[in-house]
Amino acid sequence: MRTEEPRPVRLEDYRPPDWRIGTVELDVVLHPTATTVRAKLSVSPNGAGAPAPLVLDGDELTLCSIRLDGKPLPADGFVATPDRLTIAQAPHRPFDLEIETVLDPTSNTKLMGLYRAGSTYCTQCEAEGFRRITYFLDRPDVMAIYTTRIEAEKKDAGVLLANGNLVAHGDIAGTSRHFAVWHDPFPKPSYLFALVGGNLGCVKDSFTTMSGRNVALAIYVEPGKEDRCGYAMDSLKRAMRWDELTFGREYDLDIFMIVAVSAFNMGAMENKGLNVFNDKYVLASPATATDGDYAGIEAVIAHEYFHNWTGDRITCRDWFQLCLKEGLTVFRDQEFTADQRSRAVERISDVRELRASQFVEDAGPLAHPVRPTLYHEINNFYTATVYQKGAEVVRMIKALLGPQAFRAGMDLYFTRHDGQAATVEQFVQCFADVSGRDMSQFMRWYSQAGTPEIKVAPHYDSAARILRLEIAQIVPPTPGQPNKKPMTVPLALGLVGRDGDDLPLLLDGRPLPHGVIELTQSNQSFVFNNVPEHPALSLNRGFSAPVKLSVPIDADELRFLAAHDRDPFNRWQAVQTLAMTLLKSNVATVRSGGAPRLDQGLMDALGAILKDTALEPAFVALTLSPPSEADIAREIGSDVDPDAVYAARRALRAAIGRHHGARLAEIYARMTSADAYRPDAPSAGRRALKNACLDLLALTESDAGIARAFDQYRNADNMTDRMAALETLAAHNRPERAAAFDDFYTRYADDPLVIDKWFALQAVIPEPTTLDRVLALTRHPAFSAANPNRIRALIGAFAQANHTQFNRRDGGGYDFVANFVLELDAKNPQVAARLMSAFRSWRALEAQRRERAETTLRRVAAMPVLSPDVNDIVARTLADNSNQPAC
Ligand code: 0A1
Ligand code: ZN
Predict the structure, then answer these.
(1) For a disulfide at 85, which of 67, 135, 513, 744, Cβ 3.0-4.6 Å?
(2) Is the pLDDT of residue 881 over 90?
(3) Which atom of ligand 1 is nearest to the CA of 326?
(4) Residue closest to 312 by CA, chosen among 421, 218, 388
């Protein structure tokens, strides 16, 4: 744990570095406990400023030697501590600095810097891991050209990889050792450095780029798992082609490598030419991976690949600009998935995820702008707001400018800033320049946190054939931001006529560009002429802006839109709105001891969708799923009782199962296929619908429903169907559940990624015995607190996805998670801090739970030693935002 903290870091304090580093020559001799790193840096003053001390970052480093222009530096010429190397009188001219450090990768449990995943050596340098390898100007605006020599015992690490192209390799004569030298010709920040050493299997392929260059592709995995790399490789090639066709981006090195490792703090990392992946996002076979896993692999492979341009070729000036690469790259991977699969299904899935994670974040104490202005620990800003809302902001630029100008703006960004460390202002300026628009008000999306609330009041004048929309927007206060200014909100809309077709859209007599109106003021009115009849209002089509919308629209109109809107997103949204209204009122009823109400209108809307065989099965499956528990709780806003939320939601799902039982059983049969498993989107969509039916039918608690699930569990020939059946059984306290869980463990005991599913599913059972079960599972021989995937599977799933049991009234869930976090904190603070963020909605809970959560949070805050990561999350979670402290 660090002792002296130079934090907080503020955006307004940004200054260009005093020094540049042009080239980095690394010589790494791998050893399990004493790896030596010799770094030769060519250093020069940055600009003509006054002489400045050279202060290099470090983190838990041990210095062995230091030379300047080949000569050892005298002891009084520098000061080296584990976290800093200072040369006060550095010469004010270019010079070479040679630094030797020694590291112990085996005892690196933080999984930052050089560490071991099993027996494989690998690195993770984003955001500030390079300073755990050598002393460096570890900031993204210091871009250098790297050459990396790696040496190791051949039997320990038969494969030696680093960024760039392989320029030399061979045995070291007279020894059992070998070496490899890699050169990356593209200047890059230190966070994109990577090296890997290990005994790994490899799957090779190749790709011919749009200009005819041949690129070698290689995926490295644990030996024996090569046959599970096919989908990852296929996804990679599709992503490479798509980026050429959609954004004109071509790959630039001779080789692109992916390494899958079993211990990784996040999903994957876009190191130049050498992506390191959590193996969960690489390995798949029909027998071990679900459709969701396949989709995750496709999306993450694409995401990391797309970073080659949005992140690597153009990187961030400082960490406040994180959304510049992350929001944009998420936007790009979402577009890729939309093109590869189904645009409607992708949009609905992305918005569901946005509401369940980002909207919840934005409504609580951890809310922050897409571009924060202050941080204590940058690792805590890899958030839904930076990633998902960051993607929405890019999507809004496209909605405002239209596709052509958007593409022109992107092209300008790539040419203007290639090779640079850029800012959000520079990115947005490219769109201002190609369109001639003033984007200054739009910039508020980057600086103002909180989900804007838009209220629409429609007035139709049949005599004048005029529709007037009075629209008000407010952006709610968030930590450190009590008062907000109005945003630019692109609201895509349609006026739907009685026959289901769109009516003409004439705003003040003129056709509406891109079908979008632009809100810019707190109160605004829009007048549409020549509207021949009272239309049904389809607003925020495709979810063109990440806002909360309220429109006085009655149930009949919602049912009409659910059946007829030509915008599939709003068909789905209409059903969600009907369900949310019912659920909110049923939560209140359940709390006061009443029985949840049925809503015939909602049932009819669902009935119409279930009957419509022209609809994509994946879309129908999404429509059958009511708003999530997190979403309902967020809509209720305060005094939330998670038990009542769960009960109301389950009752609604059971009612759907009963009401539409015959139709669901018929669809279940129709969607069942005897064909061999294929992971493509249409096949996955049919399975999604089939398994949604299975689940709803089981919720009727009929023996036949449970028997159907148990049969499917036993007879499934793929993991998607087996896992879906197990999920269904997990929600019912019946003997079949225990039998299926036991069988599952026996079948897959040797497969860690599948056993993660077994842990996670038990952790989310919404029953009071779950806490004891999870506690017992932490002592299971297969549980390991050294593996982030396993921690996320058991503790993460319990804390983040089991709303009733994490939020037990007696506070047992809070104590359990906090105790686990406190134990983990010294070993892996990053993962510990993420678990701790499960407390973020505590103030919205009813009084007793709120009090228990606060007691637990204060106990954690009072610990004498906490990592900066956990300390930051706990401090912000507890902060009294009525005083509006800085976030
Ligand atoms: N840039 C990666 C995310 C990432 C961030 C930090 C990490 O450190 C443990 C790892 C990965 C991405 O967006 O995929
Ligand atoms: Zn990313």
Answers:
(1) 135
(2) no
(3) 13
(4) 421
